[in-house]
3-sulfinopropanoyl-CoA desulfinase
Amino acid sequence: MDFGFTEEQLMIQDVARRIAQEKIAPSAEHFDRTGEFPLDNIRLLGENGLMGIEVPTEYGGAGMDPVSYVLAMIEIAEADCAHSTIVSVNNSLFCNGILKFGTEAQKQLYVRAIAEGREIGAFALTEPQSGSDATAMRCRAVKQADGTYVINGKKSWITSGPVAKYIILFAMTDPAKGAKGITAFMIDTAKPGFHRGKTEPKLGIRASATCEIEFQDYVATADEVVGVEGEGFKIAMGVLDAGRIGIASQAVGLAKAAYKAAVAYAKERKSFGQAIGSFQMIQAKIADMKCRLDAAEILTLRAAWAKAQTDRNGGRFSTEASVAKLTASEAAMFITHQALQIHGGMGYSKEMPLERYFRDAKITEIYEGTSEIQRLVIARNETGLR
């Protein structure tokens, strides 16, 4: 793995940093407080190639590599975790899924609008009764004599669900086959039979709109099937590998923001006549935070590098992705906790961004595979045992 970055990678990092610091960071508190979806900021990110970083230019994207994606995501997440969630879903779950498994017509129709930031995409796998156990889904797609599918059922915790134009949906087409009976579909939310539930009042990443969605006799055509019928579960798991790199990047950016705030406060805050950063207990916290932050960042870049190799040569990068996601998400939770502790009472106040960082960090240990699931993936890949 080369630790040097190319001119192109540094360029997109600079673009992301500029938008993050000039537009996203100043508005983060407002969007967190109100829960509004930051549409103008997302459109700006799209206009600058950041909603389709790895999408080839012929489909409206920036045509960059996975390392570029990680560098940009870290910058956006450092400014605001909620914005980075929207970016991650569009890039990792939606665009990546269609590019890997979709037809040429699907790429032209669905990817371009999302990559350019004109529309928002979403990914619908989770259901009210099935989270980590995705094969227990009840959403059904019944094939008709004319080749269409009639879809009925609910999905929950759909990131960008309240605003998405297009959604990759996973539904059971043959329950008797279990995981091999799941099929992926492209959903146009403007069509009859699609309904949105209430926006979830979340603890953190509040500007990233999330809701339940429901299908009532929604009709999907044969050309709206993504990949091959019955291969939906394989598609979902493959896409989630890329998604975990996105969340790892998000966790690194968030942890970096909390770490920088803690170091600055430790140098400024005086107690007993000296900066609190001179006290050994505070120094120990900063040292531990720095070690975990650097480890998380390097492992996330390694996962991106591994993805780039498999994009060219085939294979899987699931272990590297899970290692990065597990390490980075737990580092984010640890670092935001320690940063808040260093700030004391001020860290608990909404006058400082620390309490937002703390709230935002928790979700990184949960979505796109909980920490418990990451440990299962890593151990099973290492031992070959199930």
User: Anything to note?
Assistant: Residues 38 and 192 are 27 Å apart (CA to CA). The domain at 7-119 is CATH 1.10.540.10 (Butyryl-Coa Dehydrogenase, subunit A; domain 1).
